[in-house]
Design brief:
Mean pLDDT: 89
Distance between the termini: 71 Å
Order of helices and strands: HHHHHHHHHHH
Number of strands: 0
Radius of gyration: 20 Å
Largest sheet: none
CATH class of the largest domain: Mainly Alpha
CATH architecture of the largest domain: Orthogonal Bundle
CATH topology of the largest domain: Tetracycline Repressor, domain 2
């Protein structure tokens, strides 16, 4: 007769801390979120937050696990991949405050910037690699896609530039889709010739 494994109390405490941290970081941003507020949201003593995560930077890095939920573009006609990627990112930015909080924090905190770099490198590059004329360039191409997607998010959702916020979803896709398409599928020889 085997005993079923019960979740350890520490696992539940860690999960409660991470959930509270994600809420506070999304609502307050990195600078204004405090260990005390996070602990209050988790209904625990602030010393427990420090015990499990050490400091606010380490807690943020743990809380900033983020899935871009990139679409399977293998079935998308190649000429529409750029537009599909732009549309997907618009949906993600508008549907999850955590990604926006990570973006805001990444501008001023190295731990958040590293988390953002890791998320894009580990999640975007593998999706793009099969579409690239030279798969060895997937990281470079993913980095270029990130410049546009992060720039759009910064201008549209954080800085709220009026011309950018005024664009409806279809217009934003129409403007950025061709650029993203070029970053993903441009022939390396054409790029070399234009240098």
């Amino acid at each position: 007769m085997t005993e079923t494994a019960r979740p350890r109390r520490s696992d539940a405490t860690r999960a409660a801390i991470l959930e509270a941290a994600r809420e506070r970081f999304a609502a307050d941003g990195y600078e204004r979120a405090t260990i005390r507020a996070i602990a209050a949201n988790a209904s625990i003593d602030p010393s427990m937050v420090m015990r499990y995560y050490g400091n606010k930077e380490k807690l943020f890095a743990a809380a900033a696990e983020f899935d871009l939920r990139l679409p399977d573009v293998s079935a998308v006609p190649q000429a529409h991949v750029g537009a599909t990627i732009v549309g997907h990112f618009l949906d993600r930015w508008e549907g999850d405050e955590t990604l926006l909080a990570l973006l805001r924090t990444a501008v001023t905190q190295e731990v958040a910037a590293e988390r953002m770099r890791t998320i894009f490198a580990e999640q975007l590059a593998p999706v793009l690699a099969p579409l690239c004329p030279e798969p060895g360039q997937a990281q470079t191409r993913a980095g270029l896609v990130a410049t546009q997607m992060l720039g759009l998010a910064l201008c549209r959702y954080a800085l709220r530039f009026p011309p950018v916020t005024a664009l409806d979803r279809d217009a934003a896709v129409a403007w950025l889709g061709p650029t993203i398409q070029r970053y993903i599928t441009a022939d390396p020889e054409e790029i070399e010739e234009s240098r």
